[in-house]
């Protein structure tokens, strides 16, 4: 993958100051582009005047985006320039069949922390042994019957210009079941022990031509929460195989979070200003859907992601580059953490103590202190877009998914790159 140093050098190449680049960097480029880029950037990172001049030039020759992001991007790249890209426990199986072959959209810990499930753009779900980093099982959704859409019917083996992307995976109940949401397929429940489908979760999309699945969440007591674009939010009881209730909430970009500990359901709907610049965050009772309170957050008409702290006392809402952190009991804003000046799409998770946040922050995972709003660390020196973050049940580790085809496990306290799941095959696109 192209790292942050290479990417930033492409951006600042016209502005690089004479005399700050090592003469030997060009010779190394043909051998190792990433290391050559780092060699060019280290003197710039070490010279505040050089950094300030490059930022000023980028702003002068750019526009509104550069004014907001030039210094932010350069500072972030300099902070992570020498962080490791190789895990301490490098036990990944590099056989072709042992890895995803395209992006990983989602990665989740099992309730006991022994397994990680990953959802891929290659149409598969993979289960991994956390202790060894080895693959345990592969679930190929493309081999299962698709569902009828308003355009075509997708069946096993059918060639189509709309590939099957597995968007989300969640452990259900005690972790012996897995809920999978994939394009042009019904939401299914699988048996973790053998990888076989055992049930379908009924959900009808509001638009019959929709190919992407509903957003999903699950609980330890067996609830599956589903919400499709423009449709109803449905709370389904997998044990009773029946719908518990549904809510009519208008939103073309649904986002939800569930706290079974506190009995809360969080949802969003576009704000009232009519200019697509605010979102209404709603808190309801998980058991019944009864509304409790709502608040309006500025920045965009939808939230990209939401998360509860483990005790349910805090709710984090990601809106256009910032995270609004609310106290659920007091119904008030605790802190607004800016994780990127302009970027809207990122995932978030609380650390186990509820005092810190992990965000994907445009390209790689970062740790933030909620009280101060300050970034504490970067997780690695990667620049491929990070899709999801999930904290382990014991609170010690983080798993991230990426446009790279490998899952990555990190030690939260130190930022150590702990283990890799599979290999990065430089997926297409």
Describe it.
The structure is a single chain. The chain is mainly beta. The chain has a domain at about 5-80. About 15% of the residues lie in helices and about 35% in strands. The chain has helices at about 5-10, 25-30, 35-45, 50-60, 65-80, and strands at about 105-110, 115-120, 125-130, 135-140, 165-170, 175-180, 185-190, 195-200, 215-220, 225, 235, 240-245, 255-260, 265-270, 280-285, 290-300, 305-310, 315-320, 320-325, 330-340, 350, 355-360, 365-370, 375-380, 385-390, 395-400, 405-410, 415-420. The strands form seven sheets. It has a four-stranded antiparallel beta sheet with strand order 1-2-3-4, with no helix packed on it. The chain has a four-stranded antiparallel beta sheet with strand order 5-6-7-8, with no helix packed on it. It has a four-stranded antiparallel beta sheet with strand order 9-10-11-12, with no helix packed on it. A hairpin with a 5-residue loop joins strand 21 and strand 22. Helix 4 packs antiparallel against helix 5 (about 65-80). It is globular. About 45% of the residues are buried. Residues about 15-30 and about 150-160 have low confidence and may be disordered.
